[in-house]
Specification:
By secondary structure, the chain is of the alpha/beta class. The protein is 33% helix and 26% strand. It has six helices and eight strands.
């Protein structure tokens, strides 16, 4: 299949700030470790998706190899410095993709227009997770799936939770607004989906080891 990249604002990536360009390079450098930590979950969750798939905060495109080649993929990414990396990965895989610069709290998509929404390691850094989840519900078709993999807070009153609380203000600056202490599973379960199935798992990665992965159905 011939590759095709359809970008609405990709030309803006050269105007991104030095910080955004640096963060994009850092994210791209972590692609291999991402595959090691999350590959099994991504294969089981992303490979089953079909139709129109909207990915929030796709970064440099580490999820693209796990999708079925017949999907219609839309990426909404706030950092245009990520676009060239996504374009190259899409071309390598022969995927047709659409890139849109935007925020998760206000998704550039019509009501009930997509079959699935994907967010991996995104809800930790958005400003308003509750608003993002309401936007996800808005754009999903009835029966549509929200697929997620997120790092989350450690259990209360544990040594790791205390470490997360201590590092939180520094980590937010270093990691582009990332919050290590969010209990994201509760936020998802209370968002209004008809059905939520998730699992907790742990990776050996310092204070961001606790994770969740799963599917929520509208």
């Amino acid at each position: 299949m011939d590759s095709k990249v359809n970008t609405t604002q990709a030309e803006t990536h050269q105007h991104a700030s030095w910080y955004k360009r640096l963060f994009a390079r850092m994210m791209n450098a972590e692609t291999e470790s991402s595959r090691l930590y999350y590959g099994d979950h991504k294969r089981s969750l992303l490979g089953q998706l079909h139709g129109t798939v909207l990915e929030i905060g796709p970064g440099t495109g580490p999820n693209l190899p796990y999708y079925s080649p017949d999907i219609q993929w839309i990426g909404i990414e706030p950092n245009p410095a990520m676009f060239p990396y996504i374009e190259r990965e899409a071309q390598r895989l022969g995927l047709t993709v659409q890139l849109r610069e935007g925020q998760a709290e206000r998704l550039d998509a019509a009501d009930a227009s997509v079959d699935a929404v994907v967010a991996t390691l995104v809800l930790c850094s958005v400003r308003n997770p509750q608003k993002v989840l309401q936007e996800i519900l808005r754009v999903l078709k009835p029966g549509g799936r929200f697929v997620f993999i997120e790092h989350v807070a450690a259990p209360p009153d544990t040594k790791l939770r205390r470490r997360q609380n201590f590092i939180r203000p520094f980590w937010r600056v270093f990691a582009d607004g990332c919050e290590p202490t969010r209990e994201t599973w509760t936020t998802i379960e209370q968002a209004g989906f008809d059905y939520v199935k998730l699992e907790h798992f742990y990776i050996d990665n310092s204070f961001v080891g606790p994770h969740i992965a799963g599917v929520a159905v509208k």
